[in-house]
Amino acid sequence: MVTGLSPQSAPTSASAVPSPAAPGSELDLQSFKEFLYQYNRLSQDCFMACVKDFTSKTVSSNEERCALNCLEKFLKMTQRVSTRFQEYQMIQTESANAMAQRGHL
């Protein structure tokens, strides 16, 4: 059976689960909805790519390996996009600060 694909085992912060009385719960709810959307999309994409044989109740080793590779690729892609976005944001901030410095001179 494929492990590591449940929402309970996904890396999330405690603030990702909305609390009705918590301040900013609307933002937390939106974050949780986005998490569920991404989780469901990943599940569907990996399932469609990996599960080809419906003649058995059990998950084959090839299907499990494929699903784990699919998940790993998605996580690496997400990490890389996040890193690149942070780098871009730093460059934009430095550029804005440099322009502000020139404006005050």
From TrEMBL:
Residues 1-23 have a biased composition (Low complexity). InterPro entries: Mito_inner_translocase_sub (IPR050673), Tim10-like (IPR004217), Tim10-like_dom_sf (IPR035427). The keyword Protein transport applies. One of its GO terms (cellular component) is mitochondrial inner membrane. Residues 30-87 form the Tim10-like domain. One of its GO terms (molecular function) is metal ion binding. It is found in: Mitochondrion inner membrane. Keywords: Chaperone, Disulfide bond, Membrane, Metal-binding, Mitochondrion, Mitochondrion inner membrane, Protein transport, Translocation, Transport, Zinc. SUPFAM superfamilies: Tim10-like. It is a peripheral membrane protein. GO terms for biological process: protein transport. Residues 1-24 are annotated as: Disordered. Heterohexamer. Belongs to the small Tim family. Mitochondrial intermembrane chaperone that participates in the import and insertion of some multi-pass transmembrane proteins into the mitochondrial inner membrane. Also required for the transfer of beta-barrel precursors from the TOM complex to the sorting and assembly machinery (SAM complex) of the outer membrane. Acts as a chaperone-like protein that protects the hydrophobic precursors from aggregation and guide them through the mitochondrial intermembrane space. The twin CX3C motif contains 4 conserved Cys residues that form 2 disulfide bonds in the mitochondrial intermembrane space. This is Mitochondrial import inner membrane translocase subunit. It comes from Soboliphyme baturini.
